Amino acid sequence: MIRQLFKASVSVLIFILLSAELFAQTETREVPEQFGDDIRFPALPYYSYGSGLGWTTPDSTFRLNLRFRMQNRATYMENDSENAAIEASVRRLRLRFDGFVGDPRFLYAIQLSFAPGDVGTIQQGDNINIIRDAVMFYQPNNYWSLGFGQTKLPGNRQRVNSSGALQLTDRSINNARFSIDRDFGFFAYHLNENTDRFSYNIKTAMSTGNGRNWTQNPDASPAYTGRLELFPLGAFQNNGMLFEGDLVREETPKLLLGGTLHYNPGVQRERGQLGSELFERRDLTSVFLDGMLKYNGWAFQTAFMKRSTDDPVTINPADADQFRYVFAGNGLDFQMSYVFPVNLELIGRYSIQTPVREVRHRHPKLDQYSVGLTQYIWEHAMKFQAELTFNRNEFLDGNKANDWYLRFQIEIGI
Predict the structure, then answer these.
(1) I want to staple 181 with a disulfide (CB 3.0 to 4.6 A). Which of 74, 251, 273, 322 is the partner?
(2) What residues form DSSP beta bridges with 282?
(3) Which pLDDT value is given to residue 122?
(4) How far, CA to CA in Å, does 201 sit from each of 42, 228, 301, 398?
C-alpha cells in the first residue's frame, strides 16, 4: 500500500508540475548567474570552478560549452589470500558538451566516457556504454526544471555529486553497492536555494528502472524516485553542496539534510540500474538519508543507505544450482575533513556495510577505514590525492579477512 501510494504521489506531482508550467501565463525569466560562464543542471551539478571552452552565437540563440576531465591513478594493494599487486590505470576519462538551443530556458547536456572502468566489459549483442548523459531540460524560471533523457537519478548526495568533486579517490563502498544510478526518464525539480534563509529543493523522477543504455527486455514497470533537501541555515555558497570539502571556507555554518525514496518494481538486474541480470524479477525499495555540514574549512557528511526486497535470491530455472542475488542490506558512512590555508586537505572516512543474511555467504559484512590527503591546485579541477584504506571483512561462517591499499591519483579537467 505504501509503495503504491508513493508511486501515485510522484506521478501526480510530476503531472502537476508539467501542467502548471504548460498552462501558466508566460513569465519573464530572470536568467540566473550560472548562465554567465557556468550552466548548472539540477541532475548534473557543476561546482563553480572553471568554465570549460565555450562558444555562443552572436544572436545568443545557441551555446556550446566543452569540458573534459581525467583521473589517472596508481594503487598498491594487499590482502590475506593473494599476493601483493600494483594497479595503474586511467580511472575516468570524460568528455562533456552542454549549453542551450534557441533560448537559455532550453538546456542540453551530453557526457561521454572512455575509460575501461566506465565503459565496462563489452559482450557480443550488448550496447557499448560510452553514453553517460544525454538529457535536455526546460527551465521556465529560476525555480522549476523539467527534464527528459538519460542522467543521474536524484539519489543520495555523494552519488549525485560529480566523481571529480570528491575528497577521496572514490565514493564510499556503500555508494558502490546501494546507490541508484543513471537512468532514462522524466525529471521534475523545484529548486529554492537562498544563502541567507531557510531553503529547500524537491526532486522527482519517473524512469525505466533499468539503468543507462539498456535496450533489452523492455517492460512497463517504471521506477519512481522522490528526494527532499532542506537547508535550515541557508544554502551553501558557490553551490557548495555539489562538491566535498569546505573549499570556500563558509563564514557561517551551513547544513544540508536530505532524504530519498526510490521504488523500482520488477527489476532485471542485481542492483536495479546496475549489475548482472537476475534469473527472476524482483521489486526493490531503496531509502537514502544524508547530511552535510560545512564551516570555516571544516566539513562533515554522513549517509545511511538501505535496499530491501521480499526475496533477494533468484534461481536459474534451467539449473537449480545457479543463483543470482539482489544486493540487499544497508550501509552507513561518516566522513570528516579540514582544508588548511595552503589548500591541503586532511580527510577521514569510516563505512559500515551489512548485507542481508541471504547474501552474506557471498558478500561479507565490511568495515572500511580511509584516510587521505588532497592538495588542491585549482580547486577540484586540478588536484593531487593520496589515500590509505583498510578493509575488515567478516563472513557468515565467522571467518575474517583483511585487505588494504595505498593509492595516488591526479585529477585534471576544465
Answers:
(1) 273
(2) 267
(3) 62
(4) 10, 6, 18, 44
CB 151 within 8 A of CB 159: no
Proportion of the chain in helix, strand, coil states, percent, rounded to 5 = 15, 55, 35
Q: Look up residue 17 and give its three cell numbers.
A: 508540475
Q: Cα separation of 154 and 100, whole Å? A: 22
* 3 state DSSP class of 293: strand
What single DSSP character describes residue 380? B
Q: How many residues comprise the chain?
A: 414
Please provide residue 35's backbone torsions phi and psi, each rounded to the nearest 5 degrees.
-75, -5
**CA–CA distance from 78 to each of 75, 81, 406, 407 (Å)?**
10, 9, 9, 12
Cα Rg of the chain (Å, integer): 21
Using alpha carbons, select from 294, 293, 272 the residue that is nearest to residue 283.
272
pLDDT digits (tens, 9 = 90+) for 313-356: 998 888 888 888 899 999 999 999 999 999 999 999 999 999 99
- Residue 246 has, within 13 A of its CA and on its CB side, a CA count of 25
What does the alpha-carbon distance between residue 191 and residue 144 come to, in Å, rounded to a whole number?
Answer: 6
The one-character DSSP state at 75 is E
**Structure-block grid coordinates of residue 159:** 552519488
Q: In sequence order, what DSSP letters do the residues of 44-62 get, joined into one string?
A: S---SS---EEEE-TTSSE
The amino acid present at 347, given as its one-letter code, is I
The CATH code belonging to domain 2-24+62-413 is 2.40.160.10
Collapsing DSSP to helix, strand or coil, 276 comes out as coil
Residue type, 49: Y
- Whole-number Å distance between alpha carbons of 82 and 325: 26
Residue 317, pLDDT score: 87
Helix (H) or strand (E) holding 302: strand 298-308
Spacing of C-alpha 357 from chain mean position: 27
- The rounded distance, in Å, linking the Cα atoms of 185 and 407 is 37
| Among the listed residues 366, 411, 365, the one whose alpha carbon sits nearest the alpha carbon of residue 390 | 366
pLDDT digit string, tens, across residues 246-279: 999 999 999 999 999 999 999 888 888 888 888 8
Spatial separation of the C-alpha atoms in residues 298 and 317, rounded to whole Å:
54
